[in-house]
């Protein structure tokens, strides 16, 4: 995972409330067993009609080609827990998503995949939508260390992110590795923690 | 200050409480399926890691599998590879798998409770947002992404900050002819699709206590459709009676010990929730959704709303939804004609759901204009239904009677709603394209779906006359 420090990119406004993960990556692409290559399927049913790009979808407009900051509306990423959603957004080229609110599971999944989801107020998001619509090639810059979003026209907003999630993005932390450092604590917890059943081992197990 | 049920379950699973990172939370039960696990196993292999507790992990296949004859070969090569990958991963890492040949196969959220694996006070996770279902037993259960699936496989823990708490006190009495599905759809309709974001919901009150376990599962299942991290219900005698003698539930002396532990799982009188709301169940009528999120619903006696009559913040989304759904404002719900009816999904595919639907259907014929199917939640549910003759009721009426799986809830297999078709569905999501590209989904209860299948359009099930002339409603 590419460490995230500061970032500047073209913004694209997706003016839809409650964008769900079914819309971000439709179910027909969830049968793949890989973790990569989902960008081509991002927003598939909105982006394509019988395999051809739909000109009425914002991501297909010339002025937004190469966009890497997604402006979104409230409750972005609701619905299914599929991590294919952030995989598709990241593979397409998005590194930052700005919205007034995010669904919990999606928000959490973003940090595992080098995407920074930023919550700003409705008013700030409205202003950014307006500027993106008005100014061709409008860019936003994000500095994770100081937790700020700025543009070159005087916009500046502070955003919240927990210190742990910030570190996760900045350092590309191996979360499993860091938890396994607590292996002794987990083992001693298990010794006194009661669970009333044992699930049988797979009888075809190879190890 | 007292503790909430959520506090009690959370606190007894904290392995390590760090200053500079979220707590490490122990996970009692990890459920796996074919869609969200392959990349997690691949991650383990790449890092030379093993599954920490195969004895706390159970796999099944449900999402992308066909529901037609199991002896026939898979027609979808990509889905076939995904299922095969799960088989190989479970063999390699020693994880128990209830595969397509197993008599215990089924939707992951149907089989864990019926096997007695879902128990009060546990932490349960799965790479599926409807894991909230298991909260019906007073277990803290929530959906996770694939990176976290890998984390749980490797460590049997998760790093998680504590959520906020929301109490929904449900007062009054659920009217005759309405169901748990109508209750939860009404609640989501009142408060909105994202109202509970960041919160764990506890459903409380006499109305909840009077629900059966299967009805409680329907309610908790849809917590995520309000944005809730999880849904919880205090375990009680109804819970214990359901669990007794199930396969993985302790027996004899251990059962008594478990009971005395489980009886402590309640919210203390002096506990404080971050938020509390009251909901009067007496006003609930059978629900039909008209939009493209589960909060966009109304009573069967209503008409399709006009966006201009909705709060200003909801208008634009409502206009977009009505356009997608091909609905005119002012249309009475009972005049909306249907092309498909789906009875199934982790929300409504258990034996009681099938019994209720069969009671409506018995002696009638499915309308010629539509295709209706019943997909039992598990092989166990299917066998029980066949034992009771419910399969024959459905088949005689003209329903397809299928093998267990997620099926048309998300249309990952061949069970899809075609572009522009309209479906009455007992599932949980009416998102654009959810049941198929361009598919139009109306969420309803099993009773409402069954009646709609017979009439070819929605009807108020409270007025339904069963063939035995027994009123379903009052």
What are the salient characteristics of this protein?
heterodimer, A: 207 residues, alpha/beta, Aconitase, domain 4, seven-stranded mixed sheet, two-stranded antiparallel sheet, 30% helix, globular, B: 474 residues, Aconitase, domain 3, 2 domains, five-stranded parallel sheet, 31% helix, 16% strand, disordered C terminus
3D structure, described in words:
The complex is a heterodimer of chains A (207) and B (474). Chain A is built from eight helices and nine strands. Chain A has 207 residues and is an alpha/beta fold. Chain A has one domain: Aconitase, domain 4 (Alpha-Beta Barrel), CATH 3.20.19.10. A seven-stranded mixed sheet of chain A has the order 6-5-4-1-7-8-9. Chain A has a two-stranded antiparallel sheet with strand order 2-3. The model of chain A has no long low-confidence stretch (mean pLDDT 95). Chain B has 474 residues and is α/β, with parallel strands linked by helices. Chain B folds into two domains: 271 residues, 2-Layer Sandwich (Aconitase, domain 3); 177 residues, Aconitase, domain 3 (2-Layer Sandwich), CATH 3.30.499. Helix content of chain B is 31%, strand content 16%. In chain B, the strands form five sheets. A five-stranded parallel sheet of chain B has the order 5-4-3-6-7. Chain B has a five-stranded parallel sheet with strand order 17-16-15-18-19, covered by helices on one side. In chain B, helix 6 runs parallel beside helix 8, helix 12 packs across helix 14 and helix 12 packs parallel to helix 15. At the A-B interface, helix 4, helix 7 and helix 8 of A face helix 2, helix 3, helix 5, helix 10 and helix 11 of B. Chain A: InterPro entries: 3-IsopropMal_deHydase_ssu, Aconitase/3IPM_dehydase_swvl, AconitaseA/IPMdHydase_ssu_swvl, IPMI_Swivel, LeuD. Chain A: GO terms for molecular function: 3-isopropylmalate dehydratase activity; isomerase activity.
